[in-house]
From TrEMBL, chain B:
<dbReference type="InterPro" id="IPR039578">
    <property type="entry name" value="OSM"/>
</dbReference>
<dbReference type="GO" id="GO:0006955">
    <property type="term" value="P:immune response"/>
</dbReference>
<keyword id="KW-0732">Signal</keyword>
<dbReference type="GO" id="GO:0038165">
    <property type="term" value="P:oncostatin-M-mediated signaling pathway"/>
</dbReference>
<keyword id="KW-0964">Secreted</keyword>
<dbReference type="Pfam" id="PF01291">
    <property type="entry name" value="LIF_OSM"/>
</dbReference>
<dbReference type="GO" id="GO:0005147">
    <property type="term" value="F:oncostatin-M receptor binding"/>
</dbReference>
<dbReference type="GO" id="GO:0005125">
    <property type="term" value="F:cytokine activity"/>
</dbReference>
<dbReference type="InterPro" id="IPR001581">
    <property type="entry name" value="Leukemia_IF/oncostatin"/>
</dbReference>
<dbReference type="InterPro" id="IPR009079">
    <property type="entry name" value="4_helix_cytokine-like_core"/>
</dbReference>
<feature type="region of interest" description="Disordered">
    <location>
        <begin position="202"/>
        <end position="232"/>
    </location>
</feature>
<feature type="signal peptide">
    <location>
        <begin position="1"/>
        <end position="22"/>
    </location>
</feature>
<protein>
    <recommendedName>
        <fullName>Oncostatin-M</fullName>
    </recommendedName>
</protein>
<dbReference type="GO" id="GO:0005615">
    <property type="term" value="C:extracellular space"/>
</dbReference>
<keyword id="KW-0202">Cytokine</keyword>
Amino acid sequence: MLTLQTWIVQALLVFLTTDSIGGLLDPCGYINPESPVVQLGSNFTAVCVLKEKCMDYFHVNANYIFWKTNHVTVPKEQYTVINRTASSVTFTNIPLLNSQLTCNIRTFGQIDQNVYGIRIISGLPPEKPKNLNCIVNEGKKMMCQWAPGRETYLETNFTLKSEWATEKFDDCEAKRDTPTSCTVDYSPVYFVNIEVWVEAENALGKVTSDHINFDPIDKVKPNAPHNLSVNNSEELSSILKLTWINSNIKNFITLKYNIQYRTKDASTWSQIPPEDTASTRSSFTVQDLKPFTEYVFRIRCMKADGKGFWSDWSEEASGITYEDRPSKAPSFWYKIEPSRTHGHRSVQLIWKTLPPFEANGKILDYEVTVTRWKSRLQNYTVNGTELTVNLTNDRYIATLTARNLVGKSDASVLTIPACDFQATHPVMDLKAFPKDNVLWVEWTATNGSVNKYILEWCVLSDTLPCIPDWQQEDGTVHRTYLRGNLAESKCYLITVTPVYADGPGSPESIKAYLKQAPPSKGPTVRTKKVGKNEAVLEWDQLPVDVQNGFIRNYTIFYRTIIGNETAVNVDSSHTEYTLSSLTSDTLYMVRMAAYTDEGGKDGPEFTFTTPKFAQGEIEAIVVPVCLAFLLTTLLGVLFCFNKRDLIKKHIWPNVPDPSKSHIAQWSPHTPPRHNFNSKDQMYSDGNFTDVSVVEIEANDKKTFPEDMKSLDLFKREKISTEGHSSGIGGSSCMSSSRPSISSSDENESAQNTSSTVQYSTVVHSGYRHQVPSVQVFSRSESTQPLLDSEERPEDLQLVDNVEGSDGILPRQQYFKQNCGQRETSPVISHFERSKQGSSINQEDFVRLKQQQISDHISQSSGSGQMKMFQEVSTAASFGPGTEEQVERFETVGMEAAIDEGMPKSYLPQTVRQGGYMPQ
Amino acid sequence: QVIPPFSAPGLVLGLLFLSTAATGSCSGKYQGLLEQLRSQADYMQDTSRLLDPYIHIQGLDTSGLKEHCKERPGVFPSEDALWRLSRWDFLQILNATLGQVLHRLTTFQQDLPQFKDLGMVMLYIRGFQSNIHCMCQLLGSSSEAAKPTQASPAPPLPTLASDAFQRKLEGCRFLSGYHHFMHSVAQVLREWGKSPRRVRRHSPRQALQKGAHGTHLFSRGRRLAPSGQLPW
């Protein structure tokens, strides 16, 4: 239904169109030529001729004509008005185009009207076809081919023409899709020359190729021989007979053949000499083949005179030659296993199966004989490739033969040396290298009488045991390749053992790779020691399983977070390396790559941080600082010590305890006994200053310098004691004792003593139980002892007893100031150290001593007092260690005693605050 | 009625073919052309091309019938006669005979559409004629070719039997004679290849026959009549 409607519409359209052409679309003119095909690069001229009727109607002539190509007006320079009705346009050097050319007129001065239009097609004429050749596939029709030449851009027809001398054949029109060949539609007739040529034709011309004249039989490609078969011969193990069926072309021509063959596993073909197969035949016997070997054959043929084409190869056919006796003795070797019984050893004889080209058949079994010198031989028949025999430690000869269906091989002879045999003469210059995808081994013999060489190899591994493989080479061979199934990236340990007539020589080994590869893993680097500016890295050698080749070198890459990476190459023999010139207190990232000949592999990245200070640098800083601090402190202490009075004055001036103060006056005219306990005798106004003035009488026999020396010693000890003192009590005790020893700080002493009630006594004692040469005195600032001693006569008795038992003790006591603290003075501590074991309270002892003195004074009515003065004077004479001190000492009162030449006593007086008054 | 190829009109037609039918160029090499002629003769004497298929198709391949399928003497020129001919005459007779054979095969083709190889054989015969044309051209330029020879004999025109079986037998005998004739042609052409100057005009046997019967083209010794029909 739809088809019918379409047909009706089309018919109606045709009708209307046809009607319009006659009436509505009558053109005003025409263009000549109507359908031009223009050659590329040529000139083209078109002429537009107007009709008279149209000219009259529109009142135009040829001058009104203008041209357009593809709706673009052609410049008027290209127009030529031929006459009143005709105008031409010329195009030069026509390019490759397919354009529309229209002739137009301008009517009524402004209306453009199309008169006629044509389409210009450009192209090239055909070139002469070249290289025309024909082929006659047997049983098929002749096909000819040619080279068509350049592109014409136009529809070009190729026609193959052929004829005999007496008749023509039908033309063969090349198909559009295969314009370069054509197959004729008649069967080829052999032995008649045929003339063939090709005509190429398009709108711009026709051209003919060269004619070729040939006999189709000379263009034949025969069908391949078929039914190829191969048969062997039991008489001859080296031949195979081929038979085949020729194609029918043999009825017309003489054939020649190519016969090729190869062993089954080979890839390259061998060819029978062509001169042996230069004529038509249907069988051929191939000779000089290997026994018991499968061969593959193929055959092709062509016209014997070489004209025409080779046929395709026939289908391959194979055959196996008949067996022959093994052509070679098997490779033969042995291993000696550890002996279990004394005098015997277990020897494993091993051999290799013969390759097919040497076995020449199926090996049925092996015959092994083992013979000891001048003894009966032992025969074994073995199907496998090893035999273990228990032998004595003597020398043995073993032989091996392989047997197949046809016969036995020659015997392999092997000498198994005695146990005490010393192997010598190893091979020299052993080398192993890969080449052509096999691993070659090369060596130099040291002894010319080598029977054979045994090559053993195994894969070196950290995890797997070394499972050796081996092969045998003749004694004349110095270079061979390992015929095992070797793997790439594996380290092989290869051992070459020369075998001499009397036994094996010393083995020589070498490592090699069939093909190296980059390591599977990179080395793991770590730090062994990290310094401020350097780091010692260390790593382990890569396991052989991951090396995949010989490690040629390592490269250490290290960088900071922001810095560029630095690479350092390290020899493969090293396992540690020191990175220097590092920045302190910096995080470094380091990794390491190991390289073989084929490339490298990075190991894991490792980070470390360099310390801020080098080793010992902190100590170098801290120790001097500490020392400086100590020194400063010491200086400060000394300074404070020197300025202690001033400091004391400003910081903790002595505030007298009124409850413990009393007023006393010492005078030569007053009775020697004082009641210090009487509170009534204290100063009532609170002012105090008891000055204990010691007058030293120079009645001692010792010379003054000696005394001064003793005093100096004492002073040193005193200073030393002060140096160890600490705390208020110690400090105050020292400060209070100092003026008693040295009167150099006269004014200050006056101030100090003015605020305290001071007692003093002569301490005639040596240092640490030594008997001093002079008596020194000490002073106590205590305000009470004397009073207490008077109240406790038992203490006095005790002291007497002590004094009687140990005469040193009384001389070691000295006065101390009771500063409200109990015996914390380092002086006391020192003293306590010096009299360890004494359980007597020092204070009580002092009291006792003072009581004694007091008693002496009171009982001897001046003589005792005089005695005390003598002691004090002795001590005073050695007080100051320097002249200045002596002078200061003299200013206190000694000067008067010395000047007067008689002992004078200074009694304590009540002095007003701010000073004391010497009497 | 079939025009006998070896009659005067047939000969005239044959000569006309040789002189006017040429369209292409010949190779111009005598030895090559001679070899082609020889190969064609060898090809055509093979009974597997025509006779055997014909016998098979016509159902004559039984032991009793095969014996009757033998050449009838006098239909094709004998080998002796061919030996006596000059090359020019030989080629003319050969060409005329092939024309006759073509004519007869055309009849077979109409009667035996199942005879597929017939068209191929006819094409080969036409090719043979093309080579004869070229050889004639080649010989025509030589003195021998230009020299007029004895009138070429023409084979007798066989009579078509009305009986179908007889027609089968006649066809079989004709093809047998054709193959034999081509064998003789091959023999003659093989002699041509030795040397143009050594080509014998008469074989020893021919000489004997010549002495006994005079010059005869056909084995039965019948002289070729320039005109008229000869019995089969």
